């Protein structure tokens, strides 16, 4: 009985978080009641899981960042050549970021847990960029902290391409990953 109750609680938390992402993306000032309605739950159920709006925002931040880590690890970045790993990680991260646009693009609550997850994401990224540098994909003197910042900016820009909402193919994570990696490694200059 306890396991079924726990599974039910996990499903309602997942439903609340997914509904919160959708509702807040449309209206950042949406109420807990609006989120509950979108999740198909009562306001009381939402408040039972999250004491207040701040707690919900903190849970959103932690959940989205954990999903980014899962996406990175799912790509198995240590078991493939750096170029393949970079592409896989990028495509997986773009999939997560496209689902959690509101949470990952707004200044959501930064708890110690969310900060620790962000540090883990940064560590994974720097490790991968180090491998790319050692395999000759990046210049030996490339500043990897700067490269990481540029990579993150490219990920964000890829999801916000102009007219992307007009062309669904423009939001394909695999095509966007190719664009991001090509731009990161080669810039906009002519190919030699």
UniProtKB/TrEMBL annotation:
In terms of Gene3D superfamilies, this protein maps to: Tetracycline Repressor, domain 2
Domain HTH tetR-type as annotated: residue spans? 10-68
InterPro entries recorded: Homeodomain-like_sf, HTH-type_TetR-like_transc_reg, HTH_TetR, Tet_transcr_reg_TetR-rel_C_sf
Record-annotated DNA-binding residue ranges = 31-50
Gene Ontology MF annotations: DNA-binding transcription factor activity; transcription cis-regulatory region binding
Q: Does the keyword field hold Nucleus?
A: no
Q: Which UniProt keywords apply?
A: DNA-binding, Transcription, Transcription regulation
**Entry keyword Transcription regulation:** yes
Name recorded for this polypeptide:
AcrR family transcriptional regulator
């Amino acid at each position: 009985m306890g396991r079924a109750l726990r599974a039910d609680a996990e499903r309602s938390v997942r439903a609340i978080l997914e509904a919160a992402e959708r509702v807040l993306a449309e209206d950042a000032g949406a109420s807990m009641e609006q989120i509950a309605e979108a999740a198909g739950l009562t306001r009381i159920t939402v408040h039972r899981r999250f004491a207040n709006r701040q707690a919900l925002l903190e849970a959103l931040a932690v959940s989205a960042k954990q999903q980014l880590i899962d996406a990175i690890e799912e790509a198995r970045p240590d078991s493939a050549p750096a170029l393949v790993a970079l592409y896989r990680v990028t495509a997986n991260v773009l999939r997560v970021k496209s689902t959690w646009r509101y949470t990952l693009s707004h200044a959501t609550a930064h708890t110690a847990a969310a900060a620790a997850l962000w540090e883990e994401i940064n560590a994974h990224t720097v490790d991968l960029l180090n491998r790319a540098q050692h395999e000759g994909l990046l210049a030996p003197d490339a500043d990897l902290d700067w490269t990481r910042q540029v990579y993150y900016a490219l990920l964000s820009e890829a999801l916000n391409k102009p007219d992307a909402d007009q062309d669904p193919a423009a939001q394909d994570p695999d095509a966007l990953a190719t664009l991001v990696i090509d731009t990161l490694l080669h810039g906009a200059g002519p190919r030699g």
